[in-house]
Amino acid sequence: MTATVCEIPGALIWRAKSSFQRYVATLPDGVCELSSDIDFLGTGTFAFPLGEVDADTNELRFRGAVTFRGHADLLMVPIANPSLQWVRDRWELSCGADLTASDRFVLAISRRAEQVAPGILRFRPILAPDGVFLFGGTYPAGEPLDDLVVQLESTAGLPDGSVEIPRVGSSCGAP
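Structure (tokenized):
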């Protein structure tokens, strides 16, 4: 996934899991519902607008919900108000089951973010143990999810060690 720049001052840009989206699209009643604040960027990619940054807890909070449905609602996968938080040595992507949910769970984890351009961070998340239930046990913990991109006006103030900044001018990625 290449970094997508959108017109929102800050956003979490993600497809979740493209193979899952393709599966939902094949269902006779398969649908993907978006809350009004979500931007659909095409090719199954959604932009959750940045709500707030909490420097005290190292958390980026985003707004909005994407819900995948099918099989007469026996399949329902909601991703609501996601947040990214640096916890110990990793980024945790947590979300709620709907826009009003106070109960949150860690959906995915990523060891580091890579700065791919100024203000553009790419994460390579894997499914967290608590996120397995969201997909009905279809995917195991550790399953790679699609790359996630965060666009911020500035990455200044993010926790030390949480972002890898590639060296400019290095040959073939060698240090």
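The chain has one domain: 11-161. The two ends are 24 Å apart (CA to CA).
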